[in-house]
Amino acid sequence: MGRLGRSSVRYDFLVTRIPPDAQPPSPAARGALTAVHAPDPAARSRPWPTAVAAALRGTRPPTPEPISPRHQ
């Protein structure tokens, strides 16, 4: 998780490329996805419920994990 805000959360990710010649993985793309808590689609965003915010805080990895293919 990149950042937890009052009513939003940003997930940062890194996509790596695994070269066929046994070289170490190299970054291919970086990105971010932002999700906003809006329980009522017709209204503005709302703060995260306490339990949801606590659960999100418990899932913070130090850095994005590289994604590797299952099959090459």
Q: Can you give me a brief rundown of this structure?
A:
The chain is mainly beta and 72 residues long.
Please write out the topology.
Elements: E1 3-4, E2 8-17, E3 26-36, H1 50-57
Antiparallel strand pairs: 1-2, 2-3
Question: Would you kindly provide a written description of the structure presented here, covering whatever features stand out?
Answer:
By secondary structure, this protein is mostly beta strands. The protein has one domain. Strands 1-2-3 form a 3-stranded antiparallel β-sheet. A hairpin with a 3-residue loop joins strand 1 and strand 2. The longest helix is centred in the C-terminal third of the chain and has 8 residues. The protein is elongated and about 50 Å long. The model has no long low-confidence stretch (mean pLDDT 81).
Oligomer: single chain
Span between termini: 28 Å
What is the helix tally?
1
Low-confidence stretches: none
How many domains would you count in the coordinates?
A: 1
Please state the CA-atom Rg, rounded to the nearest Å.
17 Å
Strand content: 25-35%
Main sheet record: 3 strands, antiparallel
Order of helices and strands: EEEH
Region (Disordered): 18-49
